[in-house]
Amino acid sequence: MSRRKVALILLVVAISFLGGLFALLGYRVPVFACPSLLSSSSSSSSSSPTSPFFSKSTPHGITELQCRTSPAEAQALGCVLDPLALSWVRPACYNKELTEEPLAVRNWTWTTDPWGKRHLSKSEVLDGDWEYVYVDHWYHVTHCAFLWRRMERAFHAGNLSVLDSYTAAYDHIEHCGDRLVANTGEEVVGVPAIFKYLSCRPGSLGQEPPAYWIYEGEVQYNTKKQEGLYADHMKREEE
InterPro entries in the record, alphabetically (predicted)? Predict the structure, then answer.
């Protein structure tokens, strides 16, 4: 099965899944009709090159660092920190409502280590001056659910230009689907969350790397090194 078809199936499943998840978290979710998405899922598996969802021309290929590679540069360019996605992004792709709502649902915690020893305050996290921090399993689930909700609204409005390159990337759509299906919730803390520098207004879903991020001072173009941030890859410091 092609990556495009898998991503589309995940989107359809995600929209159905959102209602139950938000009910679990105590949210009231309006029901939206997505005729374009539904008709796409029932049509042939081969997408048109001009499809607004899976354009083969990949117009949103990341060819520039729209928020550069540091918080200072991002702020100077007018970018804002999206604390749900832990990403610097242009204001045109920042959804304030769907960022503040999930952050207010509980007292989330962030730490600098995968074992949950050194906690960060919300204000420290919002400074954005980190390469990565650690969150717990439910923060990760909520992050995925609300990024999917952003996609739902964009599809309903027929305007994918409000999405950023991270939210619209195949890799992240599949990652969230895999995570929600495979994870049992046993993982309490220790999910590495990297701070990213995004491109805005992709206009379609795509396969390009979703974002740039910084690791040990160097720009990274994929998430391969993120695997090394999990607890089982790191040496635990002495108490």
Answer: Phomopsin_biosynth_assoc
